[in-house]
Amino acid sequence: MKQYTDLLRHVLATGSWEENRTGIKTLSVFGAQARFDLAAGFPLLTTKRDGVKTGFLLAHLLIALLTGAAGALLAGPAAGTFAALLALFVGSLMPTPDGFLKMLFFTPLVLLPALAMALRARRPGAAADWLTGLAFAAGLLYRSTLFFLPFLLAAWELARGRDRRSALSAARLLLPCALAVLPWMWMNGRLHGQWTPFERGASDMLVVGGALGMIDTTPEGDRRALAPDAPEGPGILRWAAGRVAADPLAYALAVLRRLLFAFGLLPWLVLLAAGGLWRARHDPAARALGLFAAYFFAVHALLATLPYYYEPVWPVLCAMGAGLLPLSRAKTERFSRALLLVALIPCLAYATSVAAAVARYGALASRTDPTSRQAFELALSARPRDARLKLRRAKLALAEGRLEDARAASSDSTDPDAAVF
Q1: What is the C-alpha to C-alpha distance for residues 372 and 247, in angstroms, rounded to an integer?
Q2: Which stretch of 172-181, 315-324, 342-351 has the lowest confidence by average pLDDT?
Q3: Comparing 93-97, 242-246, 308-312, which segment has the lowest mean pLDDT?
Q4: Rounded distance, CA 322 to CA 317, Å?
Q5: E strands present in 23-78
Q6: pLDDT class of 268 with cuts at 50, 70, 90
Q7: Mean pLDDT, the chain, as a whole number?
Q8: Over the stretch 20-34, which tens digit does the pLDDT of each residue have?
């Protein structure tokens, strides 16, 4: 920031008035430079308050409080304090890659359903079902990492009970999650004609890398160079399933290597969490936290990944490690539940704003984005004999797996690229 203000003072003191090509006079200095160390963070050039430090502090405070609440639930207030301090220490060890901010603000949205699952396991009921469903929904509106876990929990409820009570519990758990993915489905449907509940195309590189047996995708590149035969869109999942089915043993070994890679990032914390889980194995809340952590590692091990993808689960392991401390007789369930409610309200408000933005984007982009599906269809209806537009329609059909439509659309195209069909 000081370099920026010094440069402005230098221009004001020594600059000369020059007229640019549009006839506007500007005060400028030739050859002035400013250098910034990007390892220290992104240089935001402004004299206004940016709120980044405040956001950092609030995110770390929320992470510490939720981790402490989970630890206190297992072994009492002292264990909660230990878990919170350990989470802050682990956070200080994390590097600052491109996805650091994204994962920092995603971490509370991971801790919320973990704590809700622990409370629900300790004291099940309708209120616990709704709280757990809402906690999962807040995370699903931001990222799709936890998408399958509530469905697995609901399936377990139905398989264990097979009665009306279990069905209602599963419905309460799934209803908020289903509502959370509707904005994504709406946006993808309006833009691409595919009603998928995930971020379309965001994980294609991870899917390709996972099917090819890669451990991580740190040197992310063009996935077409890695897998020229991999299609666009939902077809990439069918392609990956085919690769896995062709050599399931190699894929299983790759999954194992990815798990070992993840555990090797912070092996001492993994051992600490395993010890705490073993000591508190008779506590349903500890088992719920263990199930949550196991799912998080497993779902990332299925695909190629990046080291910072595991940052949101480290505080959960900190809470599990608190189970090694002597058990306190103090009752902490009420405190943990109150903290969950207090933290869930702003997180849901934030997630709801994300959902509103996603829903609006679907309608807005389809009218203004020239690359959207609706804009393309309008252009094709206005120029039905345009060879480039016909080729584009053929490529879209091919990406969606409609080979005959792709061939028909490209049959009368004069573009030489149409020879690929």
Answers
A1: 37
A2: 342-351
A3: 93-97
A4: 9
A5: 25-28
A6: very high
A7: 79
A8: 666 677 888 877 777
Q: Which of 140, 151, 154, 77 lies closest to 112, judged by CA? A: 140
Residues 320 and 279: their CA atoms lie apart, in Å, by: 10
Give the tens place of pLDDT for each residue, 402-417: 777 777 765 654 444 4
Looking at residue 417, what is its pLDDT? Answer: 42
* Closest listed residue to residue 187, CA positions, set 374, 401, 395: 374
Cβ atoms 83, 70 nearer than 8 A: yes
- Which run of H or E residues covers position 28? strand 25-28
Residue 63 and residue 80: Cα distance in Å, rounded? Answer: 12
Return the minimum-mean-pLDDT range out of 1-10, 57-66, 190-199, 246-255. 190-199
pLDDT at 256: 93
Residue bearing tokens 């934030």: 350
Does pLDDT of 302 surpass 60?
yes
Max Cα separation, the chain? Answer: 82
Q: What is the dihedral sign for C-alpha 256, 257, 258, 260? A: positive
Alpha helical stretches, state H, 307-386: 314-321, 333-368, 373-382
pTM: 0.74
- Dihedral (C-alpha) 215, 217, 219, 221: value to the nearest 10 degrees? 130
The pLDDT value recorded for residue 188 is 77
* Residue found by looking up tokens 């876990």 in the block: 149
Of 414, 369, 368, nearest to 394 by C-alpha is 414
The predicted pLDDT at position 112 comes to 92
Dist CA 363 CA 187 (whole Å): 7
pLDDT at 63 over 80: yes
The residue type found at 308 is Y
- Residue 35, token pair as written in the block: 């250098």
Tokens of residue 348, six digits: 């849901």
| Rounded-to-10 torsion of CA 60, 63, 65, 67 | -140
Q: Which long-range contacts (CB under 8 A, 24 or more apart) does 413-418 make?
A: 413/387, 414/387, 415/387, 415/388, 415/391, 417/391, 418/387, 418/391, 418/394
Contact call for residues 73 and 118 (beta carbons, < 8 A) = yes
Per-residue exposure over 8-44, b if at least 16 CB sit within 10 Å of its own CB, e if not: eeeeeeeeeeeeeeeeeeeeeeeeeeeeeeeeeeeee
Q: Report the C-alpha dihedral over residues 193, 197, 200, 205, rounded to 10 degrees.
A: -140
As a whole number of Å, the end-to-end CA separation of the chain is 55
- Token pair recorded at residue 366: 């389809």
